[in-house]
Write a structure and sequence with these properties.
The chain is of the alpha/beta class. The protein is built from 13 helices and 16 strands. The strands form 2 sheets. Strands 7, 8, 9, 10, 11, 12, 13, 14, 15 and 16 form a 10-stranded mixed sheet that branches. Helix 1 packs across helix 2 (about 50-65) and helix 5 (about 125-135) packs parallel to helix 6 (about 160-170). The structure holds 6-O-phosphono-beta-D-glucopyranose. 6-O-phosphono-beta-D-glucopyranose binds near residues 182, 220, 239 and 382. One of its GO terms (molecular function) is glucose-6-phosphate dehydrogenase activity.
Length: about 500
């Protein structure tokens, strides 16, 4: 679907997110020929730059990070002519007048009305100021639509998130706020809905009667990188669990929506968070494990402990790993454990969901030769994209020996799939909020997280340690072993 003319103001246009994700995403959309003839990107940054220097920076970013190549100089000029730049201090009203001037001048020249999108690729501490100034300057008073795009962290707990939301709502309605959780932009996460609701094979089995447990893993090999300042205050619980892991959980658990409409889908997702069993501070130790990486070997190279990373306090108590056992207390999911885990400096970078079905009764095919494996549906999100269904079959040439077999579908083997930011920015342009986070999701996720955080902040003993390059601390394995389960396959 072709979008209407729009202007996209990017605050933080000289920053890392713009460079690594936003400019390449715009170029990919341009190459996919789904942008309208008229669109305008206004970069806003603190440093003083000429438009030409800014355009050169956009080019470097596209050359380094875009999935498409620039085919010719003519193509590049056609793309980059849409980019403007203005240097501005976010607190200074004059800058907003300049942005408004740039947009209005283009509208006049082209005789079109631009819808207005504002992407805040800046520190969340500035979200409230910018949104207030967007209103005061009249910049947010578009003739077409106006939309705000922001990203986590949205607050550091429920109260701070609520306060921030209140301030933003002075300028933007809920329908105008696009809260990005980039996991929702990933192809295979969007595919969960289709796999579940378009296959008669899965939906009847998708409940506590047939599902033994579900595992959600989002492991990383990178350490804290250059984000010590943010990460040491956030920790893995706020950085990954409050958003990405709970989003994956919602996609797996939600009831079928009445229609494939944003509101219906959000409603069902929100209900999952409402049903999520809340743990009191005295229960956290039983259901959650947190840990920090020590030094270790990764790809044959020694990497430092978290506490020895640049910018990290030598006594930091921040967790870089979280594992938990969650329950969704509704009829569908009664007593099915959902194991989640995420961590930095782990053995592999994997994002995966494992749905383990209940064992068959063992009276027919169970003896010493046959170790009957459970049926497993593996949904791979990264680096492979696809699904694998593990079944049992007869081992060729034997009587009744059983062997596990896999049916496999690869989502990105033939063709490169769009990047998360690409599809999310496009959705924001066309006004589809489905894969953005509703305020109620943010609020409920914090309400679930807050008691865990509070307990951990008071209880230094709760922090475990694991060697870099491993699958996390022993306790994360014990969490499953208690139920006769294990992280799948062996790790
Ligand atoms: C971000 C976190 O939201 O997600 C990072 O802030 C993390 O700490 C990243 O590295 C992981 O995203 P992906 O897409 O690489 O799995």
């Amino acid at each position: 679907r072709m979008a209407d003319p729009f202007s996209l103001v990017i605050f933080g246009a000289t920053g890392d997110l713009a460079k690594r994700k936003l400019f390449p995403a715009m170029f990919n959309l341009f190459k996919s020929r789904i942008l309208p003839d008229h669109f305008l990107i206004v970069g806003v940054g603190r440093s003083i730059r000429t438009v030409d220097a800014f355009r050169q920076a956009v080019r470097n970013s596209v050359e380094n990070y875009s999935r498409f190549q620039i085919d010719s100089e003519a193509e590049w000029s056609e793309f980059v002519r849409h980019f403007q730049y203005t240097s501005s201090d976010i607190h200074d009203d004059q800058g907003y007048r300049e942005m408004k001037g740039i947009i209005e001048e283009h509208e006049k020249q082209l005789e079109v009305t631009f819808n207005r999108l504002f992407y805040l690729a800046i520190a969340p501490g500035l979200f409230a100021t910018v949104s207030q100034k967007l209103k005061a300057s009249g910049l947010a008073a578009a003739n077409g639509y106006k939309r705000l795009i922001i990203e986590k962290p949205i607050g550091h707990d429920y109260e701070s998130a609520r306060e921030l939301n209140k301030q933003i709502k002075r300028t933007f309605e809920e329908e105008e706020i696009y809260r990005i959780d980039h996991y929702l932009g990933k192809e295979m996460i969007q595919n969960i809905e289709v796999i579940r609701f378009a296959n008669s094979l899965f939906e009847p089995l998708w409940n506590h009667r047939y599902i033994e447990s579900v595992q959600i893993t989002a492991s990383e090999t990178v350490g804290v990188e250059e984000r010590a300042n943010y990460y040491d205050r956030a920790g893995a619980l706020r950085d990954m669990v409050q958003n990405h892991l709970l989003q994956m959980l919602m996609m797996v658990c939600m009831e079928p929506p009445s229609r494939l409409k944003t509101e219906a889908i959000h409603d069902e997702k929100i209900k999952v968070l409402r049903s999520l069993r809340r743990y009191g501070e005295d229960e956290v130790g039983k259901y959650f494990v947190r840990a920090q990486y020590r030094e270790g070997k990764m790809n044959g190279k020694r990497v430092p402990a978290y506490r020895d990373e640049p910018g990290i306090d030598k006594n930091s108590m921040t967790e870089t790993f979280v594992a938990a056992k969650l329950y969704v207390d509704n009829l569908r999911w009664a007593e099915v454990p959902f194991y989640i885990r995420t961590g930095k400096r782990m053995a592999e970078k994997v994002t995966k969901i494992i749905v383990q079905f209940k064992d068959m009764p063992k009276n027919l095919y169970f003896n010493r030769d046959n170790d009957l494996k459970p049926n497993i549906l593996e949904i791979s999100i990264h680096p492979e994209e696809g699904i694998k269904l593990f079944l049992n079959a007869k081992k060729p040439g034997t009587d009744n020996q059983i062997t596990p077999i896999a049916m496999e579908y690869c989502n990105n083997c033939e063709e490169e799939t769009p990047e998360a930011y690409e599809s999310l920015i496009y959705d924001a342009i066309i006004g589809d909020q489905t894969y953005f986070t509703h305020w109620a999701e943010v609020a409920l996720a914090w309400k679930f997280i807050d008691p865990v955080r509070r307990l951990w902040d008071q209880d230094p003993q709760s922090l475990q340690f694991y060697d870099s390059g491993t699958w996390g601390p022993k306790k994360a394995h014990e969490l499953l072993a208690q139920e006769g389960h294990g992280w799948w396959p062996q790790y």
